[in-house]
Every structure is written in structure tokens, then in C-alpha cells.
Design brief:
single chain, 257 residues, alpha/beta, eight-stranded mixed β-sheet, two-stranded parallel ribbon
């Protein structure tokens, strides 16, 4: 699959690039500063597949998808703040989503698109709170940009955009020598689910008044992952194209024992 990748020099984007190559996808890099790309990448990606542009320029992003005939878009550009809203991250998010949807409308078929979200954008499992659609953010109010961004995704016609929102908790670099190969080899250990985190427990949920808050806080620490594992979730899913079970869903994941 030919994939337009934004943010390939960042922490998440660099791992996504390596993972996409490991899955035999053909990445087309759209970034502000190609000079930041390491030499090892320049030998793996042809210069014709490296595009200089702004991540907030929706028209330029759409042109890149169109001219390179990309099947999918993956955005790792921008950074949300933990406690406050930002201007840049939602602007990047909107530009990418709008561009992909524009091409989907032109083609008469949705463009597959993975966007970065956050753990708090997932729902608490229905069995804990007694109803569907209650966000983790209601109990753990972090990274507020993700709420606005998710609402934007939901507003796009499904015949134009086949989106997924990667809702990871805290991520760090792997200590493995070849972390991408290790993540791919052990990909079955990375369990992903739609809209809610996998393997959520009912710990403390029975406690009066504060039980749900305690439940969310006690569970949250169980979803720490590596950057390479997050990249593996996306690259592995792109193998399924538009048939993915995660089309138009938020995606939570964790590493099983």
C-alpha cells in the first residue's frame, strides 16, 4: 500500500516510517524539513517520494495524495498539550483530514487514514459506568485537543474517509537493538480493540462515590507501551486496507502477557 506519512522525523513518525517499510508498504514522506531525515532512510525511500510542505496546508497535502496516488494517509505531525488546548495540533489534524476526505470524494471511495489521538479519548467500558459513550477524559481530563479532533472525524462522510484514531497511553522508546523487528515479530502480543481499552478491569469500581475515578486511575497505568508497538498497530492494520475492523473507530491497545 502506498502511504502518505506526515511527521516522519518525530518520535512516533520515525518509528512509523521504519514499521511501514518492514510491512512492505511504500511510504511517501510529506514533511517540513527533509534535511532532518537520517541517511539510512534516504537510501530506503526514493527522492521522488519525499515532499516538502506545511502540515497545515490542506491543498498541498491533497495534491501530494493525488499526484502520488496514495492509498492511505498516516499523520504523526503535531503535538497535543496535556492540560490545555493548542492551536497548531487541531489545525494540522483538520488540514490532513480535510485533504484525505477531498481525495476520497474525488475518487468516489474513502481514503484510509490513521490519525493520532490519546488514551483519554477512549470510552470507559459500559460495564463500569452503566452506559455507553462515557469518555475516560470525564475522569482523567487530559489532552483536550483530542475531543475536538474526534468530533471532526465523526463529522466527515464515511464514503470520503475511512479513519482510525490511535489512542495510546504514555509511549517510550524500546530498549531492543532492532525494536521494529522485535515489535513485528511479537505483534500478536499487541492487543487492539475499538473505542475502549482492551482487558479493562473492574478494580475499585464498587467503591461508593469515588469508585469510578479510582477505577480509571488504577487501570491507566496498565497501558504503557513503546513507540515501536504503537507503530506496529498502525502498519499491521494497513495490511487490511478498507476491510479493517478499525475503520471509523478509536483504537486502544496494550501488550498482553
Amino acid at each position: 500500500m502506498k502511504v502518505l506519512l506526515l511527521g516522519s522525523t518525530g518520535n512516533v513518525g520515525a518509528r512509523l516510517l521504519t514499521s511501514l517499510l518492514a510491512h512492505n508498504h511504500a511510504p511517501v514522506l510529506y514533511l517540513r524539513s527533509p534535511s532532518k531525515l537520517p541517511q539510512t532512510i534516504l537510501t530506503s525511500v526514493p527522492s521522488s517520494s519525499i515532499i516538502t510542505g506545511s502540515a497545515t496546508d490542506s491543498s498541498a497535502i491533497a495534491a501530494a495524495i493525488r499526484e502520488h496516488n496514495c492509498d492511505a494517509v498516516v499523520s504523526a505531525a503535531g503535538l497535543a498539550k496535556m492540560f490545555s488546548k493548542t492551536k497548531e495540533f487541531p489545525a494540522i489534524f483538520r488540514a490532513v483530514v480535510t485533504a484525505a476526505a477531498t481525495i476520497g470524494k474525488e475518487r468516489g471511495q474513502p481514503v484510509r487514514c490513521w490519525m493520532l489521538g490519546g488514551f483519554a479519548a477512549l470510552d470507559v467500558p459500559e460495564g463500569i459506568v452503566g452506559k455507553k459513550g462515557v469518555r475516560i477524559m470525564s475522569y482523567l481530563p487530559l489532552f483536550p485537543d483530542h475531543t475536538e479532533n474526534h468530533a471532526l472525524l465523526e463529522s466527515i462522510p464515511k464514503n470520503e474517509l475511512a479513519w482510525s484514531m490511535l489512542c495510546a497511553n504514555q509511549m517510550g522508546p524500546s530498549k531492543e537493538a532492532d525494536a521494529t523487528a522485535e515489535a513485528k515479530a511479537n505483534s500478536r502480543k499487541v492487543v487492539a480493540t475499538a473505542d475502549v481499552p482492551p482487558d479493562w478491569t473492574g478494580t475499585f469500581s464498587w467503591v461508593p462515590i469515588l469508585g469510578r475515578y479510582m477505577n480509571v486511575l488504577s487501570n491507566a497505568g496498565r497501558y504503557m507501551t513503546t513507540l515501536e508497538q504503537a507503530a506496529e498497530v498502525v502498519s499491521r492494520d494497513l495490511d487490511s486496507g478498507l476491510e479493517s475492523e478499525f475503520v471509523n473507530r478509536r483504537v486502544g491497545f496494550k501488550v498482553s502477557a
